[in-house]
Amino acid sequence: MNRREFLRTGAGATAVAAAASASTAGTASAQAAEVTVGPGGNLVYEPSEVYVKPGDTVKWVWDSDNHNIQVLSTPEGATWEGTEGPKTKTYNTGHEYEHTFETKGTYEYQCFPHAPSMAGQVIVNEEGKKPGGGGGGQKEADPKHMGVPIQAHFVGIATILAILVSVMFTFFMLKYGESPHASGGD
Ligand SMILES: [Cu+2]
C-alpha cells in the first residue's frame, strides 16, 4: 500500500483502540467515591458533595491533621456514627475512614473542630449522581447502558487521537522517510 493508505490504516486502528479503551475506563471505576479531608491543609472536604448508590462505600482520606467526621443528620431509618470516638477526637494525615451507605437520602456531616465551614454531604440515590444529568464527573457503570452505540464523547476522543497520530506520522514520514540522498549531514 502507498503512504497515504498506510497513514489512514494506522489512524483508523488507533481510533478503534482509543474508543475501546475509553469505554473500558468508563466501567472500571465503579464502586466507591473518595473524599479528601483537609486537602493541602485547606479546611474543606473535597469534594464536599458526593452522590452514590445504595450499597456504595465512600472513603475519606486525611490530607492534613486534626479533622474528623461528625454526623449531623441522616435519612430516617439510617444510622451513621462518623469517625470513632467523641466529637472532639480528631485524626491526622494518612488516616482513612470508610462507610457504606444503604439508605437513600441526604447525610450531612462536618468536621467538629472546623465547623461550620468544613462540612460535607453524601447523597444516596438510585442513579448515584446528581439529578438533572448535567452534573458531570460522576462515574457511569450501569450495565443497562452498555449495549448503546459508542457515546459521542468517546468518538470525540478517538477522533482527536486519530488526528494527532496522523499528524505525527506525517511529520516523521516527511522528516525521516525521504530517500537517503536528500539528507546532507551525518
Ligand atoms: Cu477539620
Q: Can you tell me about this structure?
A:
- With 186 residues, the chain is of the alpha/beta class.
- It has helices at residues 3-28, 152-176; strands spanning 33-37, 45-46, 49-52, 56-62, 70-73, 96-101, 105-110, 119-124.
- It has a four-stranded mixed β-sheet with strand order 2-1-4-6, with no helix packed on it. A four-stranded mixed β-sheet has the order 3-8-7-5, with no helix packed on it.
- A hairpin with a 7-residue loop joins strand 1 (33-37) and strand 2 (45-46).
- The two termini are 30 Å apart.
- Bound molecules: copper (II) ion.
- Copper (II) ion binds at residues 38, 43, 67, 111, 113-114, 118.
Topology (SSEs and partners):
Elements: H1 3-28, E1 33-37, E2 45-46, E3 49-52, E4 56-62, E5 70-73, E6 96-101, E7 105-110, E8 119-124, H2 152-176
Parallel strand pairs: 1-4, 3-8
Antiparallel strand pairs: 1-2, 4-6, 5-7, 7-8
Helix pairs in contact: 1-2
